Amino acid sequence: MESLGNFFIIAGSLGLFLYGMKVMSDGVQQAAGQRMQKVLTFMTGRRLSAVFTGFGITAIVQSSSATTVMVVAFVNAGLLTLKQAIGVIMGANIGTTVTAWLVSLIGFSLKLSALALPAVGIGFVMSVLKWPKWKHWGTTILGFGLLFMGLDFLTRAMPRLSPETLAFITAYSDMGFTSVLLGAAVGTVITVIIHSSSAATAIILTMAHEGLINYEMAVAMILGANIGTTIDAALASIGAKPVAKQAALVHVLFNVFGTIWALALFQPFLTLVDFITPYSPTSGILITNHLAMAHTMFNTINTIIFLPFVNQFALLVSKIIRDKGRVEKEKHYTLAYSSGTFQDSPELNIVRAEKEIRDMASLASFMYGRISEVLSTLKENPEKEKAVATLTAELREKENYADEMRDELTRFLMECTHHQLSDQSERRISRLLWIVADLESMTDDCYSLSFLLQRSVLKDRVFSGASMKALAPYTKLVGDFMDFVQTRLGRALTPEEAEQATLIEDWIDKARNKLRKYGQKRIIEGENIKRELLFIDFVRRLERLGDYCYHISGALAHMND
Asked: Which CATH architecture has domain 344-557?
């Protein structure tokens, strides 16, 4: 009965530890979410910058699984290349060692209850304040306290050593290299079950601190935990594009190959760790310091070994998981994502959503470009009917694709709002939802414009040469406004750019009024009434595209409010 009670106490302690880690992660993301987004957005293709990006984000969110799952999602969305992803994954493995050092240097060096309870109290008071920055950092401190409170309970719940327990542990600890392999397997299984290498490492450090496992087996379990943590990236890649599966495979191979060399050179590896870390790893705080150093050295050496071979690594996974490389895009839009990406990194999902929205804007610009292309040559084209029929069929397919993008992106953004976000990020998502709706309406109007062109041909109402000449500057002005908006999606407009958008909108309105009067004048002069009404309708729909661009510009101007 006592053993069952200890089991539930250990389970509850682990749950408190994981919850504290999540609260701390959410707090940091809410306080620094915009900075993390900028780091990812402006990250270059340089290998070292990618490594430092992965390290920094993982150190902040306290989960390499969260980082690698997001990397898989970003690669799937085209936000990161495979080579960039490899560097970020390597950095994420180093970043996850921060938890081990927190547990080792703080968790066992100080009296946890003395540290945890004040942190919970101070963090709670700060989290209920109305000032956003204080509130978010208060949530971080609160999570910090809960994390170490869970670790304190976990330490107390670990069974004390007895001769019988010692004999049981010794039976598995003194089997030579077999014990090492067994430890690696156990570390892998534990991490797969709890889906967190940081939590698994905390358990391993606690067991070693209490003397339940010896130094060699503890190091082996930490190596195994590095394999177990790849399960989340693998799960996130299910149903994703081949390049996302390749990124997940990179994480698996990187950690598996690393564990293989570390196990093959196990004793030299331990010698190196012991040489760098002061004092002998006997028990208590000394052994936890050595284990944290072993965790850090493994991931650092692994990165140093494989970083020069990023290109070869990318080629290897590309051959294992082949991408047929079809030129044509899928006819149906899908936005694959795992629910775990929201739970671990809700702020970073905004980066992915913005990339998809830029793709949607590119689709709208492409549709408008096709209309301008057909319109400019329609008068002299001997195959007018074929040209407008092809245009209408093409834009019908694009418009259906845009409808699917709107539905999927709206669902994705709404899912983001169900998780912890900063107030600024919540407002950002609201504006992104408006932008998605406006972009979809723009594709609707582009499709309607193709219908008007088709009707003008089928009813023998093609615009006259004079009308085409008068219309050309107007269509170009609308196209320029669409390009203006597309190139600025993903960031806030400067005051100067917002003023420029207002000027463009005014120019479009004035041009619309001028062209409308031009059409009305031609009707008075005896021109074909139905053709001129069609011309006026065409002008009106073009002006609506300008209105949508202006609405989007307004949302972008206040994106960081």
From this structure: Up-down Bundle (1.20)
Dist CA 162 CA 494 (whole Å): 69
Q: Which amino acid is at 217?
A: M
Query: What are the angstrom distances between the C-alpha of 425 and each of 49, 349, 357, 485, 498?
Result: 26, 10, 16, 21, 21
> Six-digit token pair at 385?
């009917």
Question: What's the DSSP call for residue 397?
Answer: H
User: Are the C-beta atoms of 6 and 159 separated by less than 8 Å?
Assistant: yes
Dihedral sign of CA atoms 253, 219, 171, 199 in order: negative
Which range, of 69-78, 104-113, 129-138, averages the lowest pLDDT? 104-113
For residue 73, what pLDDT band results from cuts at 50, 70 and 90? low
Quote the CA–CA distance of 155 and 208 in Å, as a whole number: 10
Angstrom distance (rounded) from CA 228 to CA 310: 22
Cβ atoms of residues 341 and 349 within 8 Å: yes
User: H helices within 128-158, ranges in order?
Assistant: 132-157
Read out DSSP for 516-546? HHHHHHHHHTT--HHHHHHHHHHHHHHHHHH
User: For the packed helices 465-486 and 529-557, what is the interaxial angle rounded to 10 degrees?
Assistant: 10
CA 368 vs CA 76, 104, 466: distances in Å: 27, 60, 22
Could you tell me if 391 and 454 are in contact, meaning their C-beta atoms sit under 8 angstroms apart?
Answer: yes
Chain mean position to CA 440: 23
For the record, the structure tokens of 557 come out as 């101007």
Q: Residues with Cβ < 8 Å from 488, sequence gap 6 or more?
A: 497, 553, 556
- 378 and 455 Cβ atoms separated by less than 8 Å: no
DSSP-based helix, strand, coil % in the chain, nearest 5: 80, 0, 20
* Both structure tokens of 338: 């795992």
The 3-state secondary structure of 219-278 reads: HHHHHHHHHHCCHHHHHHCCCCCHHHHHHHHHHHHHHHHHHHHHHHCHHHHHHHHHHHCC
Domain extents for the chain?
2-320, 344-557
Distance set, CA 65 to CA 231, 320, 337, 515 (Å): 8, 23, 14, 58
420/165 Cα distance (integer angstroms): 43
The span from the CA of 444 to the CA of 334, in Å, is 20
Average pLDDT over all residues of the chain:
80
Question: pTM (2 decimals)?
Answer: 0.63
